[in-house]
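chain below, 87 aa
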Amino acid sequence: MRCVRCGRCQFECPVFLQTANLWGGPVYGGPMGMGWTAITLGERLAGELSYLCLGCGRCDEVCPVEIPLSDIIRKLKSGYASGGKAG
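prediction:
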């Protein structure tokens, strides 16, 4: 992950703005927290949390290192829905 932890994805995310650090993960919240949660705590937990994402793509638009956060979250949703791993 190339994340520089600037927080831009968090400040643009409508879900994060309502839930603060309660969504995304215990280490890093918001859209980037979804990917980090998948790596550190497992794809099942991250997949479950990913369903709060609206899929608006604002996080992708503001990421200075162009991490495809909405793609990561979409894969987590898909993996969770199919009962397997995100892929």
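The two ends are 16 Å apart (CA to CA). The chain has one domain: 8-82.
thats it, cya
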